[in-house]
Write a structure and sequence with these properties.
6 helices; Four Helix Bundle (Hemerythrin (Met), subunit A); single chain; two-component regulatory system; 0% strand; 77% helix; 155 residues; mainly alpha
């Protein structure tokens, strides 16, 4: 059993490090993890779940606004992307945040094609991050279920 726990912990560490090195996460995610303790062991998963729910709504709102060909409300899109950028920043979603900056620039210049293209990229990155973090949380659960402790990962 100790071997299994050690293997899971190693996978967890390697996977976590890869998320940072590939630019999916930044230091804000590390800060968020520091707020999690034994009294609230699911804190990060809960915050991230709320973030992803927020992402879905905001992306959907922006897609609807951009679907109004010839009558796009760039102010609405800009407001939504500003919210998404803030949420992304608060959970350490580095790639999503970076794409939001580009999308906001497209909104500010009323570049319709740029907005559509960037929104598609935001949607892809959000879905990719969601899948990767779900894998990370699943690894955490496996470690705990096997009787182990979640290792501290130094980035």
């Amino acid at each position: 059993m100790d071997t299994l726990i050690a293997q899971l912990q190693r996978r967890f560490c390697d996977f976590t490090i890869s998320l940072y090195h590939q630019g999916f996460l930044d230091d804000q995610f590390t800060e968020l993890k520091k707020l999690q303790d034994e009294c609230s062991p699911d804190f990060v998963a809960e915050v991230v779940t709320l973030f992803f729910e927020d992402c879905e709504k905001l992306i959907s709102n922006m897609a609807r606004a951009l679907d109004q060909t010839g009558n796009v409300d760039f102010k609405l899109v800009g407001s939504s992307v500003h919210q998404l950028k803030g949420s992304s920043s608060s959970v350490g979603a580095k790639r999503v945040k970076g794409l939001c900056v580009t999308l906001k620039e497209c909104c500010d210049s009323q570049n319709y094609e740029g907005c559509v293209r960037c929104l598609q990229q935001v949607d892809i990155e959000y879905k990719t991050l969601k899948a990767k973090l779900q894998d990370l949380f699943n690894l955490e659960q496996q470690i705990v279920q096997a009787g182990g402790r979640i290792p501290q990962v130094d980035i």
